[in-house]
Model the fold of this input.
Amino acid sequence: MSKPSIYHKHLFICTNQRPANAPRPSCGEAHGLELVVAFKKAINDLKLQVPIRAQKSGCLDLCEQGPTVVVYPDGVFYGNVQLSDVEEIVQEHILNDRPVERLRLHEHSKKAQ
Done:
């Protein structure tokens, strides 16, 4: 029997920062920290009765699709997330349990590194 999750939804936003000359891009450089702030604000503004958490994470290893966000317990990954996408993800996925398909990454999204 699995244990219940502490959070109804838990968002991890990649904020990994690589050196300027790194061969792969980094989500932190592409507004990862700003996304963390925007998700936290959008969630806090709703004053929900269920526990939702958004936090920064290290590399999610989907750098070429970044900035990336993953929502658990659903295991849904989003790529190329922009600040303008935050409200849609919160409204659709967090509140209504409908992943935002136009941003969703699928198993085949990870290219050979």
Remarks:
- The beta strands are 9-14, 52-57, 69-72, 76-78, 104-105.
- Residues 41 and 54 are 9 Å apart (CA to CA).
- DSSP finds two helices and five strands in the chain.
